[in-house]
Amino acid sequence: MPRPEDKAEEAVELIVRASELFDGLPWELGFSGGKDSTVALSLTLEAMRRGARIRRLYVVYADTLVEHPDLRRSALEALEGLRSIPGVVPVRLTPREDFVTMMVERGYPAPGPRFRWCVDRLKVRPVREFMRGLGRFVQVSGVRLAESAERRRNAARYSGLRKVVEGPAPMVMPILDWTAEDVFGYLRTHRRWDGRDFGYLLRLYGAGGVVEGACGRALLSDVRFGCWVCTVVREDRMPSHPILRWARQRILEVSRDPRYRERRPDGSLGRLNEEGRKEVARVFLEVAERYPEALGYDDLEGLKRRLRSVVGA
């Protein structure tokens, strides 16, 4: 079985060779701040240090403004540490239509499996608009086949399980065949681009340990960090503050309660009615007051004023 160090060397060499195929194109890496995208970024930066023909690397963080607060904090700090590296451009994107506004002012109910409006508005649209300005570019992905059966199916459909995809939409997937333990092994034995160790990520994920919760024992290495407000996942395994778990559950309850929804002509439930919007505004106002770091709005006081005006406080 290859050692993590051997896999890291192989991945760096892969990126260097791929850069020769795509010489002259800009590169883009979607960075969430989580373990996989962090390792993919670290490997790409090491390849650049070794002479990879990557003239410009855009490191793109799509900030939904409701990301897991611990991960968001460390991701933004990690982005800041990239600013001194030649050829690297850290980018923070924010949505034009944010989650709170969509629910409180436009009356959208909490997202669900059949209506995942959040993904398109908070993530896909901002990233797509940014990428459109790059023209043809090379995408670096931290996807791993071992993550899930869905990831394996998507990778097989798009790339035929190849790590380097040529054509009109080039892609490089340096850790495609890595396991979670390979990732943790790398984080334990390497330092970040600014000299800091990866202990903060190991602590966040429990270094591959287990977490106890309502859903039982779960490997933290299997936990996917994302928006704390996510109502799409069936089992929320992210370790989070009690106020955030309450808020997530409350907006879901309000969205499912017919008393807080408008009725369409056919009798089906439509958007949140005035009382539903007020109730959701109260929830987010409570979060803003008690755990403000969970809301990544640049003008948090302005957000609170808007929420108070809806509530009528």
Describe this protein with a few key phrases:
single chain; 313 residues; alpha/beta; six-stranded mixed beta sheet; two-stranded antiparallel sheet; 11 helices; 44% helix
Tell me roughly what share of residues is in helical segments: 40-55%
User: Based on the structure, what is the oligomeric state of the protein chains?
Assistant: single chain
How many angstroms does the end-to-end distance come to?
A: 62 Å
Biggest sheet layout: 6 strands, mixed
The sequence of SSEs as H and E is HEHEHEHHEHEEHHEEHEEHH
Radius of gyration, CA atoms, in whole angstroms:
21 Å
- Please state the structural category: alpha/beta
- Mean pLDDT across the residues is 89
Biggest β-sheet: strands ordered side by side in the sheet? 3-2-1-4-6-5
Beta-strand segment tally: 10
* Cα shape: elongated
Low-pLDDT runs of 5+ residues are 208-221
Q: Beta-sheet strand percentage?
A: 5-15%
Number of helices: 11
Structural overview:
This protein is of the alpha/beta class and 313 residues long. It is built from eleven helices and ten strands. It has helices spanning 4-21, 35-49, 69-80, 99-104, 117-132, 149-159, 180-189, 199-204, 242-256, 274-290, 300-311; strands spanning 27-30, 57-62, 88-93, 138-140, 164-165, 171-172, 210-213, 216-219, 261-263, 269-272. Helix 2 (35-49) links the parallel strand 1 (27-30) and strand 2. Helix 1 packs across helix 2 (35-49) and helix 10 runs antiparallel to helix 11. The N and C termini lie far apart (62 Å). Mean pLDDT is 89; it is low at 208-221.
